Amino acid sequence: MKYTYESAEKSTVKITITLTEKEWTEAQDKAYEKTKAKYRVNGFRKGHVPKHVIDRMYGKEVFYEDAENEAFGKYYYDILQKETENIFPVDSPVIGIEKIDEKGLTMTATVAVKPEVKIGAYKGIKIEKVEYNVNDDDVETEVNRLLEQHAEDVAIEGRAAKNGDKTVIDYSGSVGGVKFDGGTAEKQNLTLGSGQFIPGFEDGVVGMNIGETKDISVKFPEDYGAKDLAGKDAVFTVTLHEIKEKKLPELTDEFVKEKTGDESVEAYKKAVRERLEQANARRAKAETEDKIIKAITDASEVEIPDALIERQIDNIVQNVTYQLMYSGMNLETYLKYLGKTEKEFRDGYRAQAENNVKSQLVIDKILTDEKIEATEEDMEKKIAELAEKAKKTVEEYSKDVNDKQREYINNEIVIDKLFKFLTENNEIA
Predict the structure, then answer these.
(1) Which residues contact 93 (CB under 8 A, 6 or more apart)?
(2) Helix (H) and strand (E) counts in the chain
């Protein structure tokens, strides 16, 4: 077997594989052994028809396709093992046949490979540090969130509905006097001012009294999901059944101790401030690191194969699909709501996918050039830290760490070391 390889466009490599007559015959013989049971010829038991008989009856080309697969499976991966430093596939190859006859086979495998990165400057660059401070308003927002979580809805009588109220309504909508699908409901919960309904609807309920029925005129947005309603005027007949007002609990030492475990309001607010400061520090650190990678990525050049971008889009779409699933919706329904085809939806993530891939390639390049890796000592130290957090001995914790978790820990260490290196070698202020 002989082979050659050459670079093609967009970080792809074309491998040309040529088999001798002997090698090609061996591949056909193996194909015969694997498939002979499906050939039936009078005078021979099933699976015992000689190859030359099948050749004569069906033509010598009858085994070519299976023999091609046999040859590819053997020789392609042999070549990859020999050329590990020169060919790093990132996708399945596209197979082509250049020449095929009794005397031999010449096939090609065109495959996307990990692209070469022309890395930009990653030392001595100036990056503006991201900082987030915690003020009294931030603390009060968290305090109010706690109060909101434990608020009670109290039925209200004797006044009209206002924004912030929780109401129970019936409604029936029509366009041009004709009712439409999904436009009618009874005993529907609606918080006024939430933006749950189309613009103008909730404003129309504001000011209504319990037991009142009213026609509310609205216009569906031009970009409304249901195309048959988009941009059209509609009238909703609404009956208000119930108004509830949110009543917040009083912020006292007793309330705080019961709900949070803190001894007093003062202690609770102090704990809130500390948590916010820690969260802000993590957020600022992550955003500063993102700025460093973006600066390096923008200064770098790389020709990304389409296969890598498509794979990244697959990952993004899969994550969106999972999020929709937890919301009780599938992708098909969501696409109908957006009024987009699957291709349009995927194309919307193309720029993000390309940036994600380029950033990762840049990171990989820095890790390789600077020989940044997790040592066994690093792993032992990290596992000891995790064991302490889990309140286990190192031996106990290590027994529960499988290969996938170990890989995750390894990657975490490497990324921490990468950003330590980048922080120390760049001007961040």
Answers:
(1) 15, 76, 109, 110, 111
(2) 14, 13
Contact of 405 with 379, CB cutoff 8 Å: no
| Residue 323, amino acid | Q
pLDDT of residue 10: 80
Residues 6+ apart with CB under 8 A from 67: 24, 27, 28, 30, 31, 105
Q: At what angle do helices 331-338 and 306-326 cross, to 10 degrees?
A: 100
User: For 280-300, what is each residue's pLDDT tens digit?
Assistant: 999 999 999 999 999 999 999
HSE-CB of 409 using CA atoms within 13 angstroms: 20
pLDDT tens across 129-150, in order?
999 999 999 999 999 999 999 9
Task: List the structure tokens of 164.
Answer: 């912030």
Q: Which CATH superfamily is domain 2-114 in?
A: Trigger factor ribosome-binding domain (3.30.70.1050)
Can you tell me whether residue 278 is helix, strand or coil? helix
Class (C level, CATH) for 277-428: mainly alpha
Residues whose CB falls within 8 Å of the CB of residue 174, separated by 6 or more in sequence, listed in order: 180, 183, 234, 235, 236
Domain ranges of the chain: 2-114, 152-247, 277-428
- For residues 167 and 244, the answer to whether their CB atoms sit within 8 Å is yes
Q: Are 386 and 397 a contacting pair, CB within 8 Å?
A: yes
Q: Alpha-carbon distance 368 to 142, whole Å? A: 44
Tallying the residues shown for the chain, one arrives at: 429
Q: Are 427 and 126 in contact (CB under 8 A)?
A: yes
Nearest residue to 76 via CA among 99, 101, 110? 110
Q: Indicate the Cα dihedral angle 142, 144, 147, 151, nearest 10°.
A: -130
CA distance 103 to 99: 10
